[in-house]
Amino acid sequence: MTPDQQVATAPEPTAATAPRPTPAHRRATPADDLTVIVPAYDEAESIADTVRSILGQSTPPARVVVVDDFSTDGTGDLARAAGAQVLRPDANTGSKAGAQNVALALVETRYVMAIDADTTLAPDAVELLMAPLAADESVVAACGFVVPRHVRSTWERGRYVEYLLSFTFYKPTQDHFGAPLISSGCFSAYRTDALRAAGGWSERTRAEDMDLTWTFHQAGQRVRFVPEAVCYPIEPHDLAFMRTQLKRWSHGFVQNVALHWQGVVRLPFLGTAVAVAMVDAVVASLVYLVVLPLLAVLVTPWVLLAYVVDVPAVLVPVLLAARRRGEVGRALLSIPAFLVLRIVNGVAMLEALVTEVLLRRPLQVYEKGH
């Protein structure tokens, strides 16, 4: 450990770094036994907002630990100034999972939460996300609703619609059947003992949140989705960052299917959901990128209408979610960007399938996607 890390692991008691006693006038909450871990590499532009967002919660956690993963831009100093405890490894760990595990080894609270360094929270997000963990001992993880913080560029708009669709339709359906496909890495809470029993955040795939979630499901442990607990990450604003993020996500999905498929197929709903997602990844990508363009050239350009044939089905859950947020206009203006994004999604997924399955060249380097 560096001198900075040694100081961080045994800090002088302060309001920000030491567990706070519960005031006599306030009832104890699960957050009083919660450590929040924020992995961060060169996040100077966002880390202070993230830390202040966590400390300003309706029920703030006992401790906020930022793992400054050998940043070069002063991320650690800014996090400390904002009120967080800071750990700095001797060298970059190579992945978000690696950085989170540095802090997990030092956690003493019953619960632990992972929040990305570019993510801010609604004022009551921590309180709401902790509720299912406090209410049911069988629940080992919970994830919240994700909305892009900025919705300006084509790529941010596409992701905005994608998230509204996913977190308004797919995620609640998965939660109803007791099997959210992913406890999102940008904002999730866990029972510390269950997380440690699962080996912490695995570094064997590029999608550690999916890997951990499927590990919990196969162990018979419950994961919940809490739509009322809202977080706001910064999403890729240009094509270069979006391609980097999608590459990691696509390869991570393929890697997790290869790793977990034997255990997943024994779980009725999860096995079906993963199978449908895999078939959709292959078939939809081939149709969008190969079949439709060929038919347009060889038969008739009218077949290109297939690119938008499902737009009404997308609009219904998206506009319902947007209406609740008072953002119907924003959602309507963002639909074209979503159509562009899913084509780029298809390219990323086909590349991952070819590289991982056919060429046997797994993605091993973790690259940031924003």
From TrEMBL:
Keyword annotations from UniProtKB, A to Z: Glycosyltransferase, Membrane, Transferase, Transmembrane, Transmembrane helix
Start and end residues of each stretch annotated as Disordered: 1-31
Keyword check for Transferase: yes
InterPro entries: Glyco_trans_2-like, Nucleotide-diphossugar_trans
TM annotation in the entry: 269-296, 302-320, 332-354
CDD domains assigned: CESA_like (cd06423)
One Pfam family of this chain: Glycos_transf_2
Protein origin, superkingdom: Bacteria
Residue ranges constituting the Glycosyltransferase 2-like domain according to the UniProt record: 35-196
Annotated Low complexity bias: 8-19
Family under the similarity heading: Belongs to the glycosyltransferase 2 family.
Protein name: Glycosyltransferase 2-like domain-containing protein
Native organism: Nocardioides lentus
